[in-house]
Design goal:
Distance between the termini: 38 Å
Oligomer: single chain
Order of helices and strands: EEEHHEEEHHEEHH
Radius of gyration: 18 Å
Helix content: 25-40%
Number of helices: 6
Shape: globular
Bound molecules: adenosine-5'-triphosphate, magnesium ion
Strand content: 15-25%
Strand order of the largest sheet: 1-2-3-5-4
Structural class: alpha+beta
Length: about 240
């Protein structure tokens, strides 16, 4: 069955993909290639010699799918405490889409990115703790990833008795080491030192964002949700929120 997305409004857009709420499941999102920036465009943009590589090697969703399958096969279930789950490919009228866990706050709103959160509120103590927890998680599991970008991390919040608290940070993109030898086959000392570099780099990126924030212009459009995450098909309130 082909899912109609072209009639829907995406809730966000990255450099490569448009993100839609799954019309059939408010707990999932479907990511498709941006029609205004095809794989052919991306390959052209890379120039020689990278443009000699096959088109499939530029496909983010295919890479993400492979990486997530490897997480399911080779890592403990706990790795998904801070990584969004992937449910595989679906057919859509905008081409092949990748279905994944849509991260929402306890009031049903789609969670905003760390970039937007820090931009709007600064680096609160709550947020610093959540960042440290994410970094500990990265080091505990030696999660294979590219650089952890502030627009590829979302901040899941919970509201209890009128109080807002960060529940967890979830990485939604940029997973997998991109290395020919899978991370889990490499010696543990090497995995640890590579992961430590990612963690250090992540802290630097947050520091850079805080520095840029002083100049008062949001850096680029990536990491901002359209219509502030409010969506017609919001998920039902979570148990915590009902209690
Ligand atoms: N599972 C998710 N839950 C909540 N929000 C999400 C999810 N996946 C994506 N988003 C939102 O959509 C935006 C774009 O998604 P994504 O990073 O997957 O696209 P991309 O084109 O691959 O990005 P990039 O520019 O990093 O290549 C994110 O910055 C985030 O705001
Ligand atoms: Mg992204």
């Amino acid at each position: 069955m082909t899912i109609s997305l072209s009639v829907e409004k995406p809730f966000a857009r990255g450099g490569n993909r448009l993100c839609f709420v799954d019309p059939e499941d408010a707990g999932r999102c479907i990511k498709v290639r941006r029609p205004d920036f095809s794989l052919e465009d991306l390959r052209r943009k890379k120039g020689f010699p990278k443009n000699l590589k096959p088109l499939s090697s530029f496909d983010d969703s295919l890479e993400e799918y492979r990486v997530m399958r490897s997480f399911q096969q080779h890592y403990p279930e706990g790795i998904f405490d801070h990584v969004s789950r992937c449910y595989g490919f679906v057919d859509t009228d905008m081409g092949r889409g990748l279905a994944s866990e849509l991260i929402r706050d306890s009031d049903g709103r789609i969670s905003i990115t760390l970039k937007q959160y820090v931009w709007e509120r600064g680096y609160s103590e709550d947020c610093q703790q959540a960042v440290n927890q994410l970094c500990e998680h990265w080091l505990r599991y030696c999660v294979p990833s590219r650089d952890i970008l502030v627009h590829n991390v979302v901040v899941q919040r919970a509201y209890r008795g009128g109080e807002e608290a960060i529940q967890r940070l979830v990485v939604i993109d940029g997973l997998g080491s991109g290395n020919l030898i899978p991370m889990h086959w490499q010696p543990v000392w090497l995995q640890r030192s590579k992961t430590q570099r990612k963690v250090d780099n992540f802290h630097h990126r947050i520091a850079t964002l805080l520095e840029t924030r002083k100049h008062e212009q949001f850096p680029g459009e990536h990491g901002l949700l359209y219509h502030n995450g409010v969506d017609d098909r919001v998920a039902p309130p979570s148990k915590e929120q009902q209690s």
